[in-house]
Each structure stands twice: as structure tokens, then as C-alpha cells.
Design goal:
Blueprint: H1 4-19, H2 24-54
Helix pairs in contact: 1-2
């Protein structure tokens, strides 16, 4: 993991370069680089917090499904049915 000091140093370096830039385009490029660094740091912090919240110590696993309940049914009594097949209509 990159330390906050390293990140701040890089942002300061880019700020100095932006101040010394000769064109508006160069300044915008430095600002875009600073924004990208900030976005990565903030996303990393959000991810770490979400991971720490999602991991609960000694948590009991919850079953992903429930047991099916048997529904009593009556067989159809028709002349052309030929047994207990699921294809008997």
C-alpha cells in the first residue's frame, strides 16, 4: 500500500508542474493527474471500509435456499394416461 505521504508528495509535485506549465492544456493535464490520484485513494478507502463491514467475526452462515415443502396432489384418472409419468396430461 502506498503511504499518504507519498501520495501527497506526488500531488505537490504535480501542483508545482501545473504552476510552471506554459499552456492551458498542460495545466489541465496536471489537474487531471491530480484528480486521478485522488479518485484512486478515495476508491481504495471506500473498498477497505466495505470489506471491513462485510466481514463479521463468528458469523453463522445463512442457508441460500429453503427446503421445499411437499404439496399433496391427486393423480389424474384419465383413460389415455399410462402411469405415473410426468408427461401424462
Amino acid at each position: 500500500m502506498i503511504t499518504q505521504q507519498t501520495i501527497l508528495t506526488q500531488i505537490e509535485k504535480l501542483t508545482i508542474e501545473a504552476r510552471q506549465a506554459n499552456s492551458e492544456q498542460q495545466v489541465r493535464e496536471k489537474f487531471a493527474a491530480i484528480k486521478a490520484i485522488c479518485d484512486v485513494v478515495l476508491a481504495e478507502n471506500r473498498t477497505e471500509k466495505q470489506q471491513s463491514l462485510s466481514v463479521a467475526p463468528n458469523a453463522m452462515p445463512v442457508p441460500a435456499f429453503t427446503q421445499p415443502v411437499a404439496i399433496p396432489s391427486q393423480k389424474l384418472q384419465e383413460d389415455d394416461a399410462n402411469g405415473d409419468s410426468i408427461f401424462d396430461f
